[in-house]
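2024-03-11 09:14:02 INFO worker-7 job=invfold-0412 stage=load source=structure_tokens
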């Protein structure tokens, strides 16, 4: 017992002596290394000593300064030490307030930029990328909803660890997405089961399956079969039927305009919508290349209204040509259908139109069938540029085949023929030839939206520097953040372009971008991480929402860091008429599985049917195909 008491007493004495030694050391030791170990050399650091007031510490190059008022003994010794250090370098002690120093430092110090590590944006190898996609499907189907996948219940699988409990509830950022095209629809569907604060703004309240516009323009499918109300894609989101006129990037406000028409009167109302995160998915407009007469005299295939207009125009041409008293030359002019552009849209429309002539013509317009012609005008030397040359030749063979037994080819390909001007009755080519027509359809490319050009003007110079590649589209970084902004504005689809990895303006690209962005928002990734500088390269989006999913573990370049968007090229399809289609399915960058004819047609129909956004659309499209096969196309004009 005495020995135990002795140990306790000895320990107490040692503890008191150690505490006294530390107090003396803190008060009197003028050692720079000791001072630096206790005082962090940072301009915003505040050190609080027991009993005494705060000491504000600031470092300018290698000179230490201290700002104090009435000094204690320890502060006085520390101050004298710092003064001696500065005097050794020939400088006077700096007694300016820290606020003034911070302001001066911000003015004199160069703006720091962030350099994205190369492996953050390097494309993942194809096998790893496919494995990531497979586990994305697994992660999505492991839990009944996205919310449960982030915070599983006790009975749910434990593949994901819920985030630690937070003492404060952070409000969900207000996400505003502009548009209802492929990118926006994929984003809304991906976030449908997640409690996010989302507002969608668009002048049309439906999603349109654009690859089937050619079929809708001749009556193969009905317009309502390829449209889906946008409100049904994400019932928890808010939808505003309005046009976005401009964006105040500094104050994060969108100016909108809504037009409501009843009878012959229209009411225009304007309002503003604020946002925390803005996603621009407004698509693209028609590119006329500055050719006179295109806008005034041509039809387009960009909207459901365009398809209805073309469908009515085709029937009008046949009805006009059937009137008595017309010369043969005049009938030929009326029944000449000009398609400008031999890309997928132009070729598919020409093919659908030929199907209409071959299948409905003998029943309704047999007297004028010998005078029908379809002219496909293309500035380049080939058609369907994205396809392999072997498939291009098969498409040319299919398009120019004879349409009737012992008849003639009604489709003529006019390659290497640039358009100079279009009048109400003629198309003048660059080589001087003139083509008289009854109906013309322009399918020659995309151009920028006026809204997109306005956003570009409001961004920093880094955005304008990349316009030599973006060409009227919003230049984005690998995470789809608009270059020249602060990270709160993102863009996808036809209105966006990554200058370092230019992707084709297709529905496939926009759909994958919308799905990827939806998953990033669903997982709580911050697209404006700390350290972001307006107009500079930004740190990658980061997340701290618990343990990552299996797919994230595979794809993420670093813990908590979002993987860059990577496009998975699934291939391309094109209908060439007469129950024939082209299919080019990519296996690697250089290898693809190619098919045409009936096999390609079966693949084309199955893919288009499966890619419909709802079961309702799949059923309606299948019924339309069946009706067309049994009863033919409806030629009534309503």
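2024-03-11 09:14:09 INFO worker-7 stage=emit residues=638
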């Amino acid at each position: 017992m005495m020995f135990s008491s002795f140990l306790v007493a000895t320990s107490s004495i040692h503890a008191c002596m150690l505490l006294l030694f530390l107090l003396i050391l803190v008060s009197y030791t003028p050692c720079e290394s000791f001072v630096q170990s206790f005082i962090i050399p940072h301009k915003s650091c505040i050190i609080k000593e027991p009993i005494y007031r705060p000491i504000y510490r600031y470092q300018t190059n290698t000179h230490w300064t201290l700002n104090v008022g009435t000094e204690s003994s320890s502060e006085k010794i520390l101050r004298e030490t710092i003064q001696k250090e500065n005097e050794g370098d020939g400088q006077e002690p700096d007694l300016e307030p820290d606020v003034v120093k911070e302001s001066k430092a911000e003015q004199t110090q160069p703006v720091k930029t962030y350099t994205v590590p190369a492996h953050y944006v390097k494309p993942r190898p194809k096998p790893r990328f496919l494995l990531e996609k497979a586990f994305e499907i697994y992660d999505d189907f492991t839990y009944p909803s996205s919310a449960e996948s982030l915070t599983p219940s006790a009975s749910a699988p434990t593949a994901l660890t819920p985030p630690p409990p937070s003492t404060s509830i952070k409000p969900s950022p207000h996400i505003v997405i502009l548009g209802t095209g492929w990118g926006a629809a994929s984003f809304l569907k991906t976030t449908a089961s997640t409690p996010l604060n989302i507002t969608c703004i668009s002048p049309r309240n439906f999603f349109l399956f654009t690859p089937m516009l050619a079929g809708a323009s001749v009556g193969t499918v009905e317009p309502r079969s390829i449209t889906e109300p946008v409100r049904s894609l994400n019932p928890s989101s808010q939808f505003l039927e309005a046009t976005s006129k401009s964006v105040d990037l500094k104050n994060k406000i969108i100016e909108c305009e809504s037009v409501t028409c009843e009878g012959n009167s229209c009411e225009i109302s304007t309002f503003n919508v604020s946002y925390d995160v803005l996603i621009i998915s407004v698509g693209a407009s028609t590119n006329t290349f500055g050719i006179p007469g295109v806008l005034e005299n041509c039809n387009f295939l960009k909207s459901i209204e365009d398809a209805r207009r073309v469908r009515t125009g085709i029937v009008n041409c046949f009805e006009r040509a059937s009137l008595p008293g017309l010369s043969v030359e005049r009938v030929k002019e009326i029944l000449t259908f000009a398609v400008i552009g031999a890309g997928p849209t132009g070729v598919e429309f020409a093919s659908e139109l030929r199907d209409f002539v071959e299948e409905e013509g003998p029943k309704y317009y047999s007297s004028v069938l010998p005078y029908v012609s379809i002219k496909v005008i293309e500035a380049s030397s080939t058609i369907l540029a994205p396809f392999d040359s072997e498939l291009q030749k098969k498409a040319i063979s299919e398009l120019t085949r004879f349409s009737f037994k012992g008849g003639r080819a009604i489709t003529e390909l006019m390659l290497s023929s640039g358009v100079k001007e279009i009048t109400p009755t003629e198309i003048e080519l660059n080589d001087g030839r003139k083509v008289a027509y009854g109906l013309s359809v322009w399918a020659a490319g995309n151009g920028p939206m006026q809204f997109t050009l306005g956003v570009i003007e409001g961004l920093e110079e880094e955005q304008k520097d990349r316009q030599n590649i973006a060409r009227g589209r919003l230049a984005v970084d690998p995470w789809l953040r608009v270059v020249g902004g602060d990270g709160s504005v993102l863009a996808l689809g036809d209105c966006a372009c990554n200058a370092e990895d230019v992707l084709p303006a297709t529905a496939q690209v926009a759909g994958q971008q919308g799905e990827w962005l939806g998953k990033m928002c669903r997982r709580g990734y911050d697209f404006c991480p700390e350290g972001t500088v307006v107009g500079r390269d930004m740190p990658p989006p980061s997340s701290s929402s618990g343990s990552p999913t299996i797919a994230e573990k595979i794809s993420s370049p670093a813990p908590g860091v979002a993987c860059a968007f990577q496009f998975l090229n699934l291939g391309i399809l094109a209908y060439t008429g007469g129950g024939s289609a082209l299919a080019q399915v990519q296996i690697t960058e250089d290898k693809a599985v190619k098919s045409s004819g009936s096999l390609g047609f079966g693949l084309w129909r199955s893919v288009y049917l499966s890619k419909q956004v709802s079961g309702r659309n799949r059923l309606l499209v299948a019924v339309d195909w069946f009706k067309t096969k049994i009863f033919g196309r409806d030629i009534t004009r309503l």
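2024-03-11 09:14:09 INFO worker-7 stage=report msg="The first helix runs from residue 2 to 28."
2024-03-11 09:14:10 INFO worker-7 job finished
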